[in-house]
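Researcher: Structure prediction, please.
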Amino acid sequence: MTSVLYSCSRRHRGEVKGGNKVVHLSLDDVEVFGDLIRHQQDYDTLFQHPLMAFLLELHREHGIRITLYTYEYYGNGDIYVGIDEMPLKFRDDFRKSADWLRIGFHSPRAKFDSLVTVADFKNSYYNVNSAIARFADSSMVASTLRLHYFFAPDSLLNALTGVRTLLCADDSNLVSYNLSASESRAVCNGGTIVKKNISYIRTDLRLDDNFGVPGDLRHLDNVDTLVVFTHEWKLWHKPETDSTRSLLGKFKIRASEIVNRKLFKETVKRLNESGYDFSFLE
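Model: Predicted structure follows.
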């Protein structure tokens, strides 16, 4: 029988520097690596890319630490590139950012597949981690993960190694990973569950178009461990998709990105001012 430990209090997991509150910050559905592969000739440095420049700015201004959850393959129509094709030209930039940047496995591809085989899932996880170690550094491989659609039954989880924490759904109606419905509710109510040495904790705040963030943050101010995220496509989109959009469609995308970047930046600023240290929860 699998041992399960329950805790009803939220506790920080290290990396605290003079404070007692930490926040894990991350982006889901990250495809920036696909753009860096396809257009590597356009960037002399990693931080010439608009998304990476934005994150570097937030690190310098507010001390963020952030995790990017990504795929093995990135699609542009029917043409895919793999993360193993990432050039080495950005390796020094990545390594200089190892104190504030992590990269983690999210899913083999953006398209959700509940029928993925254990072998394919395991190989994809290994390939993503191996690629990160090659084009960046092994120290930057995330041990705290949020898997695509919060999906991973025991058969898939058993195929992963080195995972210390799983970030669960921010919706009480969703069952996360291999948790039962009652275990998922316990996590959603603020508890922590440990199974097979993996901690399961709730995602507290999704920033996607969430204009109620200031009120949400006031409500969560007494929580000592916060988990906050948004999706990459809310902040930056793949330029190749512009060719299929009308002028109005392009305007809407640009306007949405501007608003969501401002929302993300304001959230980071408020967290910093409220005394939260940014943590990888390692």
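Model: The longest helix spans residues 247-273.
Researcher: Thanks, that helps.
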